[in-house]
Design brief:
- Strands 1, 4, 5, 6, 8, 9, 10, 11 and 12 form a nine-stranded mixed beta sheet that branches.
- With 242 residues, this protein is α/β, with parallel strands linked by helices.
- It is globular and about 45 Å long.
- It contains seven helices and 13 strands.
- Helix 5 packs across helix 6.
């Protein structure tokens, strides 16, 4: 199992917090950053290798991750086109480091509970985190379900067959390889400003991706300072409940 953490975005909506730092280095309670928390959790769960994609401030992020001393084998895939492309290109650049391996994929601004990470890692098949207890978000990812499988993921999906979801995946090697092949086809055609999930959607349910129900457990992205404030409250409550 290898982890893939996407950290190539600019994070414009974070304002001053990302003016001189990558979003993955946004501070969290307990003298952690989003990235240090993710890597610490991975190490504690027994994951030994991680690939981190980079964009702005790549050297700063790399020094931060390497300096944590967690015993993880870290590799990096830089995306020089980070300002003009979406993370579909970052995943494509990381593909040679990942093919043939089961992959845990997390967005670099994602904060999740230890139990969610454990559930992802313990899943037998390919899964994506969903939460049917939440209303469908207006501007964030939704998953379309059909016969117990996820057949599409996107921002613009709505309907009774859709559920809120988060970019936290556990992929079987075969399924991830199929997605990488379609991602490569998109990049070859110059379709580089779209989500990588567009390539998944183009396969029209051919990849067996299943929902992993969160049931209200902590798993969410930090896109804005307001998100950060709310996440800090949830993390404090999570810590107090231990």
């Amino acid at each position: 199992m290898k982890a893939l953490i996407l950290n190539s975005g600019i994070g414009r909506r974070m304002g001053e917090l990302t003016r001189s730092l990558p979003k993955g280095m946004t501070p969290l309670p307990g003298r952690e950053t989003i990235l240090s928390r993710q890597l610490r959790q991975l190490a504690a769960a027994g994951v030994r290798e991680a690939v981190i994609t980079t964009g702005p401030f790549a050297d700063t992020l790399r020094a931060h991750a390497d300096g944590l001393g967690l015993g993880l084998g870290l590799a990096y895939a830089h995306s020089p086109e980070y300002a003009t492309t979406n993370y579909i290109v970052s995943i494509h650049r990381a593909a040679p480091l990942l093919r043939g391996r089961d992959v845990l994929l997390l967005h670099g601004d994602l904060v999740l509970a230890d139990g969610v990470l454990e559930a992802l890692l313990n899943s037998a098949g390919s899964v994506m985190a969903v939460d049917s207890t939440l209303p469908l978000p207006e501007k964030d990812f939704k998953a379309r379900l059909r016969a117990g499988r996820i057949v599409a993921v996107g921002v613009g999906l709505f309907g009774a067959d859709c559920v809120a979801c988060q970019p936290a995946y556990r992929w079987r090697a075969e399924d991830f390889g199929r997605w990488l092949d379609e991602i490569a086809a998109f990049v070859a055609r110059g379709e580089t400003k779209v989500y990588a999930e567009n390539a998944f959607n183009a396969l029209e349910g051919a990849i067996p991706l299943h929902p992993l129900e969160l049931g209200g457990r902590l798993c969410g992205e930090i896109d804005t300072p307001e998100d950060l404030a709310q996440m800090n409250i949830r993390l404090a409550a999570l810590e107090a409940g231990r």
